[in-house]
Amino acid sequence: MTDASDPRVVGETLRAWIRGRTGISITEQNQAPVELAVRLEAERHGLDPVIYLNRLQGGVLPPQAFIDAITTNESYFFRAQDQMRVTITRLIPELMRCRPAQPARILSLPCARGEEPYSLAILCEEHRIPPRAVELVAGDISATCLADARRGDYGPLALRRTDPTTAQHWFTPRGPRTYRLEPALLGRVSFYQVNLLEDAAAVLARRFDVIFCENLLIYFDAETTSRALAVLGRLLEPDGWLFVDHAEWNIPREQFRMQELDGCVGFRPTGAATPARAGQPRAGAVRGATAPAPGARMPAGDDSLPSVHQTPTPLPRPTHSPARSVTVAPSAPAPLIGDPRLAHAEAHYKAKRFAEALRTFDVVLVSRPADARARLGKARVLADCGEDFEALEVAEALLHAVDEGELRLSPADYVEALALIALLLHKKGLKDLAQGYLREIARRAPGHPSLGLLRPGPDHA
Ligand SMILES: C[S@@+](CC[C@H](N)C(=O)[O-])C[C@H]1O[C@@H](n2cnc3c(N)ncnc32)[C@H](O)[C@@H]1O
């Protein structure tokens, strides 16, 4: 059996195939999730990884599940907060004034699990923008993401930048770590499965006044970015606005020029008039922003920025959430005992050889994706390397899988995973959110050292 961690499996042919299908550039740095996806999908089909890849690339097997598995779907509500603020307070009101018979058309592409377009839907509601005045359209290449988006269930990390009042108003707790979006909002966004590079213009079949294309170009090389921008140019009204993430501001200038509106940077077709909408004099200054040198990487978003809402504090974990129906295995599952690679990974971690530890945990996970202890180990290493949100994602996904009965973890390791999340949330300033995890630790392991962070509360006097 070929080992999918063997770099020859994720070689040039597969990289070229992925780039051709999605535009995403896979390098040695970001190929670990691809290796894992190959192994998981091969196992699902009961095939050797090499045979699986031959059939996938030969068109014998449908590609969607593999594409879903290799895309990075990380997102959260109110992520592009500046762009959302300007859209809601400036661009939509102006369109309503100067084009009252037609809705403002807003596109979120890619939309991941709907966090971005639903944030806009929430803001429209809060700013009393009627549904007839705005058409919210969203697209993504991932079918799994779109199914999740239509369902409207989210974990606490998706709400990490949502203020508690907004969260409590628009979301209902539905069991441990799941919040359901108000059903009335689900209907405000139309979702489409699209590949920006292939069929977006044909599927969406209209132009948009504002396009959010946040955190996608970063996965593309220069040539693919140019192709993507050409499509975005065809999807955008001649005087529309394109928003991309800070890290993507170095886009080529042939079709778009950078422009600032109310302190927010956007991109406009090169032919567009300088004011935000041609012929509409406005009070707010709109001026060209200083562009970074092509190829320059912009700093990541500043976590300390105020959110669209007034008080950006995190969603407290609901104290009234139903007791966990988690059945935790009485002890670590037997097959893990004696796995030499896991022992090596843990030894590297103890010796603070983090790069080797991470690589070894990844190797274990490629061949044993259901190895919960390797996942916990990986989350720990990521946390120690300062990759806090990535560590949170891994630990949260692990607990979710255990809660769902898909993976097994010993009670002690379960508490360690809770503690890791609590400490990371605390470190990130998400202290209210950390309290929910700490209360659960207090129930399971009353003497746990992390409880020094627990504030006295009704269920922990
Ligand atoms: C990191 S998420 C960004 C989501 C959201 N815009 C944000 O900023 O939070 C990237 C998304 O791009 C999608 N994607 C990747 N390649 C794509 C393509 N060629 N066409 C459309 N969506 C794509 C992935 O499925 C994933 O959901």
Structure description:
The protein is of the alpha/beta class and 461 residues long. It folds into three domains: 12-70, no CATH class; 81-287, Rossmann fold; 334-453, Serine Threonine Protein Phosphatase 5, Tetratricopeptide repeat. It is 42% helix and 11% strand. The protein has 17 helices and eleven strands. It has helices at residues 12-22, 32-44, 49-57, 64-70, 81-98, 115-126, 143-151, 164-170, 183-186, 200-204, 222-235, 340-350, 354-367, 372-384, 388-403, 411-427, 431-444; strands at 104-108, 134-140, 153-154, 171-173, 179-181, 189-193, 208-212, 236-243, 256-261, 264-269, 286-287. It has a five-stranded parallel sheet. The chain has a three-stranded antiparallel sheet with strand order 3-5-4. The chain has a three-stranded antiparallel sheet with strand order 10-9-11. Strand 7 (208-212), helix 11 (222-235) and strand 8 form a beta-alpha-beta unit. Helix 12 (340-350) packs parallel to helix 14 and helix 13 runs antiparallel to helix 14. The protein is globular, with a radius of gyration of 23 Å. The model is unreliable at 1-5 and 275-337 (pLDDT under 50). The chain binds S-adenosylmethionine. The site of S-adenosylmethionine has 23 residues, from loops.
